[in-house]
Amino acid sequence: MLHTPRGGAGSGTATAGSRSMSIGTVLNVLREEFPEVTISKIRFLESEGLVEPQRTPSGYRKFSADDVERLAHVLRMQRDHYLPLKVIKEQLDALERGETPSAPAPGKPGDAGDESESAPTAARVGRDALLAAAGIDEGDLVEWESYGLIAPLPDGGYDATAVSVAELVGELGRFGIEPRHLRVMRAAADREAGLVDSVVAPLKVHRNPQTRALAQARAKELAGLTVRLHAALVQTALGVRLP
Q1: Handedness of CA 25, 29, 32, 33 (dihedral sign)
Q2: Hey, which bits of the chain come out as E strands?
Q3: CB neighbours of 179 closer than 8 A, spacing ≥ 6?
Q4: Which end of the chain offers a freer environment for a tag, N or C, measured as fewer CB atoms within 10 Å?
Q5: For residue range 172-209, what is the model confidence (pLDDT) as tens digits?
Q6: 214: helix, strand or coil
């Protein structure tokens, strides 16, 4: 199996040694670097041929450390370079053949090409790509849109984060948490986003382009802090109620 590069100091994802791992263990390992990754996402990458874990006689997936490194490399190329899955797979296949693939050109959200259909975690995705990536049907998406959990863009496409939202809503559904139950989370997210926006608003309208860029960086940092605080508060509340 391929040993993929870790992408430099500070960007590698730790693995659990040479032992085989279940998909749940792989998820926990990857989330150290990619907090939004889900089991559905791992299964989707497998279905696209990006990783081929072994199977036990009963059908359970067993991932090696190299499998985890390959997944991390794929996720990193999507996150940092906005590469379509087809291009990433071609690069990985070239490495496995002992070839040296060309370095990926730095991408940016909204680049032209076939990303909207072949790379569900790119900046924008089409409706069909969203359904395929999240493993849901049209009825699910229509219902989730009715509760405001996912919203299409004016051109009918979706922001890349809609894939993560759809995957998470689907995972929660396995525990009996229905979309209608999640409206309170949608409302809380809107309030938190409003709070962050109020802090960076003066920077967003500044004449200096560097200051406007700072607004984006600060908004991202504040968003991360609010997510961490929200998670800590939920865990604290559960700790009180479930001693």
Answers
A1: negative
A2: 54-55, 61-62, 124-125, 158-159
A3: 143, 144, 147, 149, 169, 173
A4: C
A5: 888 899 999 998 988 988 999 899 999 888 888 888 88
A6: helix
Cα–Cα dist 23/25, whole Å: 5
CA atoms within 13 A on the CB side of 139: 0
Q: Which token pair is 167? A: 């995957």
- DSSP symbol at 151: -
Q: How many whole angstroms separate alpha carbon 107 and alpha carbon 105?
A: 6
Please state, as a whole number, how many other Cβ atoms lie within 10 Å of the Cβ of residue 127: 15
Mean pLDDT of 98-123: 48
Phi-psi bin for 135: left (phi > 0), alpha (psi -120 to 50), beta? left
